[in-house]
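@channel sequence for tomorrow's demo:
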Amino acid sequence: MTLSYIGDIEFVGEVEWDGKAIVVGAATPFGHVSCRIPRETIHALPIYSDALEREIRLERHLILERLAPALRAKISISGTGEPVDLWPWEISRARPAAVASALPADQETAGRLPEAIEKVQPS
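structure tokens (generated this afternoon):
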């Protein structure tokens, strides 16, 4: 599907925590996409490295906000209507500004988002 502008992607509907992943829908110019952010991806964020299920459920909107740039980037290169899972290795190499805000300033590498998608592993 390759979008020219990832701002064309909007998260819609409820942000749910099913005990294993944050689940949210995304509206794109090509239709609706179901997105999942598994627990292991959430734990890859330093601020949530040891988050309990209750904490994830309570902060699911904030977690989505932090991971939205990486999730939008992955959606923009996925197949039309294909469900998208955001994995830890897709956020670990690059630190979009929202993710980097959880890191000390000397560890930020904002603006390198496409590298996060470079070595996409099968979902």
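heads up for whoever presents: DSSP finds six helices and four strands in the chain.
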